[in-house]
Amino acid sequence: MLRIHFTTEDLARTRLAARPDPLWEIAASLHRLQSQLGRCAHAAWYRDARDAIATRQLGAEVRKLLFPLFPRATYFPDFLTPAEASHGLDSGLDAILDTPPSRVRHEIGLLDQVRTVPADMYRLADNDIRADLVAVLRKYHNAVIAPYADRMQARLDAECARRGRDLLHGGAEALLGALKPAMRWKAPVLEVEYGGGLDRDLHLGGRGLLLIPSYFCWQKPVSFADPDLPPVLLYPPAPSAPAPPPRPAEASLSALLGRTRAAVLRTVTHGATNSEIARAVSVSTANASHHTTVLRDSGLIASHRHANTVLHTLTPAGAALLRLPDQDRRSTCRTADGPTAPVRGRGPAPGVTSRRDLGR
Asked: Domains in the chain, ordered, with CATH?
């Protein structure tokens, strides 16, 4: 069990990542390749990934370099998932290259206490050798992560929309309270199921917490082993319920607006940008912009500029057009609760105080 202790200042600084972290996703995806757990949920990706790795002749590098560095164990080095990766893959890889050699040696040593690593792993303290690792991480990302970028972002968009409503209606405590079943909010502590028999406390101390929804994380959230690093919590977002078949009112809406424009209007229900609409409706960003312009000129949506993006929301007329008769309204609920997977392998070595297994 990981217990994350919040102060009032920490609640004010709790935030949600709006896009996938490429290095965390690399790490989580490597765990999916090494485990049967989560295989069904990622079956299509697993087949595509194996084919891409074979086609690009990455098999040896994945097995001999990446699997030993990212084992399904109670720990893997923190320097492999730097905070800078939130700004993109290039920033994250640059941060790996800039990691002090002493820290690399120390964290490889911690990994060696949990899972025996090849002796030449310590050579990663050398910048030139680490440059080779960075090159492999980039090739792996391009081969198996990048082709799924749109699907990953769409999953995170849906999660952010859900959690944004929690935050809007109940503040940070409501957001934290909705992160079930792997997490339980017992103010002022967030209890996180870690597994492996590990028990630790993380005091945020006013730093806040960055919640990172992850496409490849499975069942159990993950945090850094080093409590002095910027606090993050990687977690699997709630699964989306399958879309119901069109109902008569929706068919009428499609007949009135056209199927694509009706889909755009529905996508704007909880607020969406042009890029989010494009991913949800499977059109180009330029096409999405055209449809939102028509809907705005018709008085069905309103557009608000925020930083470098434009957020579209429903007007009362747009909401009324989408509203279904009471007798047609339905609500469906699907839970992702399942049996907790047994933890395998050795426990943490002395000095290793945190679990870093990405959703065992």
From this structure: 21-150 (no CATH), 151-235 (no CATH), 248-328 (1.10.10.10)
